[in-house]
Amino acid sequence: MNTLPLPLDGITVVAVEQAVAAPFATRQLADLGARVVKVERPDGGDFARGYDTAARGLASHFVWCNRGKESLAVDLKDPRGLAVVHELAAGADVFVQNLAQGAAARLGLDAASLCAAHPRLVAVDISGYGAVGPYAHKRAYDMLVQCEAGLVSVTGTAEQPVKAGIPAADIAAAMYAFSGVLAALLRRASTGRGGPVEVSMLDALAEWMGHPLHQGTHGSAPPARTGLAHSVIAPYDAYATADGEQVLLSVQNDREWRRLAEQVLGQPELADDPDFATNAARTANRERTDEAVGRALAGLTGREALAGLEAAGVACARLNTVADVAAHPQLAARDRWREVGTPVGPLRALLPPITLPGSEEARMGAVPALGEHTDALLRALGMTDEQTSVLRRDGVIV
Asked: Taking the model in full, what pTM does it have?
């Protein structure tokens, strides 16, 4: 059987991008076969390059979000640099930008302007709060949007709200931008026209808040912060074992509670006790429920607890560290790890979650150095070595 090509093979993307939201979106496109040209500032490039040096001297965010791209380092404030990007956009299928609100429009790189000039182009504006409204020009960093979208209000303990430990607002916006591009490309295939795509971090994360929003705006109180516990299900929490591990379990229905009581807790009478027999009763008596579960698991090692819960058909998990995830047996068994090239040598990275059996494997290209592809890209536009030398001398490119 012939192997199918990657679905975005032949698609060219130009991205004036920084931080996480737009770079993570375009990395998905690159993994699926698109050619992605990343436009960066000559003076340091995407500022995410400087977030940390945790990935063997490279910034962990940058390595995560920017594999498989070509780096063009050009000054958009210089008319000659801006002209280069406009020429690249004219020949692209997709253009993505997440500059500060209003900056792209001043450069003629906003989705509306580009799509008016190039009807087949799919152009994406990613912003913090959208193009209009009182928050349009407000600075929008991930943690701030997590707070504005209410995520922090439902995350943490009863005493302390906390932000998510990953950039949830950035990731949400990135994935809606990614799916928006795919939808627009499908529409272009039938109509011949691309068109603008708009995604805001607030809109994306507010959509992810659907369950708390529906719970809290239709007559009920919003869910309380409960740490690892669940606001309306019990038992649903982490419990310490004899060897200091944390084992999580989740009982989703009363049949599972009966199995837990009989086979793990050693208290079969709790299955029919009116204080515990239903989820509503267990939630109302959460402290006593957790005490019964905690007492039983405290007498077992983590391995014993997990084995007993699995045998009883009760959903369970370990509270893994980042190191545990890196060594996770399921990821290893499914061969999910690859190596990608970087300026400091190969680094281990996970395959993207989208698997296309019968297709080429995801194109996990190298992480580019700043301006690594500038000369080749300008040469492809017809620029001579003498012209590029002048631009480099003037600081327009690196």
From this structure: 0.95
